[in-house]
Specification:
Strand order of the largest sheet: 6-7-5-9-11-12-13
Low-confidence stretches: 1-25
Keywords: Hydrolase, Protease, Serine protease, Signal
Family: Belongs to the peptidase S8 family.
Protein name: Subtilisin family serine protease
Order of helices and strands: HEHEEHEHHEEHEEHEEHEEEEEHHEE
Largest sheet: 7 strands, parallel
Pfam family, one: Fervidolysin_NPro-like
Strand content: 15-25%
GO molecular function, one term: peptidase activity
Radius of gyration: 21 Å
Structural class: alpha/beta
Oligomer: single chain
Mean pLDDT: 91
Shape: globular
């Protein structure tokens, strides 16, 4: 299927099945993986992700490990063509190992285990005092024409996003926050009893899963889970309760946590598992999951992660991603994961309260789709007080903050257009963008987010 909005696409790799040819051609993009290493993209030292070919035998896979002198750390994705995370001998040159494996008939591709960081730089009180500009419209009170226009939708009576789910792939979420009451999903398929009742591999995943810590505690970071909590508040903070902030979806939306960012960031291996976790919840249980919010970036190209995003697309789940905070042109220098050309990706730049492209925001006329409020964004955070974690609020800057405005928009649109596909929701978001001078030639739509008609 031809991508409806991007003109650039990564070239397809030629795959030759085992048994039909004595020479196997590499899948994935070993050239991009090696280029990322040479460019110094952050990755886990001495680790490789290896995707074995469908039909490869256990003996062939063992031979690959033995040939590298590698140890298998875990299975990232099971099945007949599993993805394995391997630990290489200390000091082994990863680029040469990837080059060697690209001609191994049992291997589809090998790539570094890239590491990622979040893209933030750091009658509802903040809504009425003029602070929550990202939610305002040009005719709301307070008003700001460069806001998302969410207040216009609220004024028309659209505040409820019941029966719509989004995944937050990020840090964890402080789910006891006063402004996130009943926002975080409770899993009805896996009661807390120490058993994996729904058979998804994660016992007692009550509110989601912590892939960084491999536990069911989505707030394992305590007060350090501020970034994931902040984006959650922008998506679905409770509105009309006389306190704090309001999300694009005032009420009803449910947020599923897929925590993969810890204090040291996150890895490709855990990002793949997090994306697949959300996809599995939709395909297994039929949850009405419209999108995942991905306010993070770094590392290089990963075929494994792109494939996981593709599986989400098959399940009609949008992958909404931050364009990045290093103020460069993504058309010229690829930025991931926002730069993957999958049809379900929406890449988001950041704008200021006066309509300018934020000084830190990356852009790209073909690789970034739309601008949204990302400078001076107030939202929910956990704070530490006398040894306890309590509810707080903070203003952060970043394409991380712009992205959840768009994720909230996806939920808002889906709640009033129940039959909309992922492609329909994306088309509605991009098609309603307001032309903005600072974004002309900088993003695909030349404009900024506008949910007034949602």
């Amino acid at each position: 299927m031809k991508h409806p909005y991007r003109t650039a696409a990564l070239a397809s790799a030629v795959l030759v099945s085992l048994g039909l040819s004595s020479a196997a051609f590499a899948g994935g993009r070993p050239d991009l993986a090696i280029a990322g290493l040479k460019a110094g993209r952050a990755h886990e030292a001495d680790q490789l992700l290896v995707k074995y070919r469908d039909g490869s035998t256990a003996a062939q896979q063992a031979a690959v490990r033995n040939g590298l002198g590698a140890q298998k750390l875990e299975t990232v994705r099971g099945g007949k063509g599993e993805i394995a995370l391997l630990r290489m001998p200390a000091g082994r040159d990863l680029a040469s190992a990837i080059s060697t494996l690209s001609s191994n008939p049992a291997v589809e591709y090998a790539e570094p285990n890239w590491t990622y960081q979040h893209n933030a730089t750091s009658n509802d009180t903040y809504a009425t005092n003029g602070s929550l500009w990202g939610m305002y419209g040009d005719a709301s009170s307070p008003a700001n024409q460069y806001g998302s226009q969410a207040a216009e939708a609220w004024g028309a009576g659209h505040t409820d996003c019941s029966n719509v789910y989004v995944g937050v792939i990020d840090e964890g979420i402080y789910y006891n926050h006063e402004d996130l009451t009943n926002v975080v999903w409770t899993n009805p398929y896996d009661p807390v009893d120490g058993v994996d009742n729904d058979g998804n591999g994660y016992a007692d995943d009550t509110r989601g899963w912590d892939f960084d810590g491999n536990s069911s505690n989505i707030n394992s970071g305590g007060a350090n889970d501020d970034h994931g909590t902040h984006v959650t508040g922008t998506i679905a903070g409770v509105g009309g309760n006389g306190k704090g902030v309001a999300g694009v979806c005032w009420s009803g939306a449910k947020v599923i946590s897929a925590k993969f960012l810890g204090r040291r960031g996150g890895t490709t291996a855990n990002a793949i598992k997090a994306v697949d976790y959300i996809t599995d919840l939709k395909t297994r249980h039929g949850l009405n999951i419209v999108a995942t919010n991905n306010s993070w970036g770094g590392g290089g190209f990963s075929q494994g992660l792109q494939d996981a995003i593709g599986r989400a697309n098959t399940a009609n789940i949008l992958f909404i991603a931050a364009a990045g905070n290093d103020a460069y042109n993504n058309d010229a220098t690829a930025s991931y994961p926002s730069g993957y050309p999958n049809a379900n990706v929406i890449a988001v730049a950041s704008i200021t309260s006066t309509g300018g492209l934020s000084s830190f925001s990356q852009w790209g006329a073909t690789t970034v789709d739309i601008g949204a409020p990302g400078s001076g964004i107030w939202s929910t955070v956990p704070v530490s007080s006398k040894g306890n974690v309590v509810s707080g609020y903070a203003s952060y800057n970043g394409t991380s903050m712009a992205t959840p405005h768009v994720t909230g928009a996806a939920a808002l649109y889906k709640s009033s257009h129940s039959g909309a596909t992922a492609a329909d929701v994306k088309a509605a978001i991009l098609g309603s963008a307001v032309p903005t001078p600072s974004l002309q030639g900088k993003v695909l739509t030349n404009g900024r987010l506008n949910v007034s008609g949602f």
